[in-house]
Design goal:
Helix content is 77%, strand content 0%. The chain is mostly helical and 105 residues long. The radius of gyration is 15 Å and the shape is flat. The relative contact order is 0.10.
Length: 105
């Protein structure tokens, strides 16, 4: 999972490259906060089913927005990275035909 995240974050960094005052996502401080957030989300998912539902919904919407951006900007790397990250969602939500044929895409 960490390798997939690193690969995805590198593709996102190249896709969203701009020169403004946004925080550096590769900084140690950001990575530590992201790890804390992920630990919080995973603990809350175990305790509260509704939290898990909305958390997975937010993740799917973020993936969809990334997919749409890659498509609109003709950014093939971002498009394919978003499709790769969508495949487990199709398996977990019972869409086996989509999950089966997307890797050939």
């Amino acid at each position: 999972m960490a390798d997939a995240y690193n690969s995805f974050s590198e593709r996102m960094a190249t896709a969203y490259s701009c020169n403004n005052d946004l925080p550096d996502v590769s900084s140690e401080e950001f990575i530590a906060k992201l790890a804390d957030y992920n630990a919080y989300v995973s603990s809350q998912r175990k305790e509260n089913v509704t939290f898990g539902l909305w958390s997975s919904y937010i993740n799917m919407v973020q993936l969809l927005l990334t997919f749409i951006r890659g498509t609109h900007e003709s950014n093939w790397d971002l498009h394919v990275a978003a499709v790769r990250l969508m495949i487990p969602c199709y398996f977990s939500y019972g869409r086996q035909n989509y999950a089966r044929y997307l890797p050939t895409y």
